[in-house]
Amino acid sequence: MVSTNQFKNGMHVEVDGTVFKLVEFQHVKPGKGGAFVRTKLKRIGDGAVIDRTFRAGEKFRPVRTETRRMQFLYTDGTDAHFMDAESYEQLTMPQDQVHDSLKWIVPNEEIELLYVDESPSDLQVPSAVELTVTETPPGVKGDTASGGGDKPATLESGVVVRVPLFVNEGDRVRVDTRSGEYVSRA
Asked: What is the DSSP secondary-structure string of the chain?
């Protein structure tokens, strides 16, 4: 059993028969009364995020998680298709379940698939990815008064991010996957 004292961001626990991923938590010790833990939990089944408060020391069943190396093949509009890098076994997941992670991945890329209690659940996306700019308007000197500024750019995975004016089509850029912001040129 896992106690609230052992909580870590990203860990999975079972609450009332449902598996949740712990997005964030905060231990609170009020001046009067018992301590408690305020949490933000993401339901594995549909991705809904809920706020929940637990008494300090409350126990939960830990959920076994593991990651497996997979190759992202393609999406067909309803499902995302993956192939196990070792056994060449193919696997499909509903595209809605992994939509947020898929926008940072291009076909044929190696990824890590998160398994929760032996069933595929989500993609483990690195905190920053390098992608090629496929479309962006040219940045013209003098567009801004201060010389800075940004413009939209479409990356090879199809996601649109804001980049500085000096970035051109064909450049590789590094993007933070948590915030969707430009970090640097690769």
From this structure: -EEGGG--TT-EEEETTEEEEEEEEEEE--SSS--EEEEEEEETTT--EEEEEEETT-EEEE--EEEEEEEEEEE-SSEEEEEETTT--EEEEEGGGGHHHHTT--TT-EEEEEEETTEEEEEE--SEEEEEEEE-PPP-TTSSSSS--EEEEEETTS-EEEEETT--TT-EEEEETTTTEEEEE-
Domains and CATH numbers, the chain: 2-62 (2.30.30.30), 65-124 (2.40.50.140), 128-185 (2.40.50.140)
Residue by residue, pLDDT tens for the chain (186 residues) are 888 888 888 788 888 888 888 888 888 888 888 889 898 988 876 777 889 888 888 888 878 888 888 888 888 888 888 888 888 888 888 887 777 788 888 888 888 888 877 777 777 787 888 888 888 888 666 555 555 678 888 888 888 998 888 888 888 889 888 788 888 887
For the entire predicted model, the pTM comes to 0.65
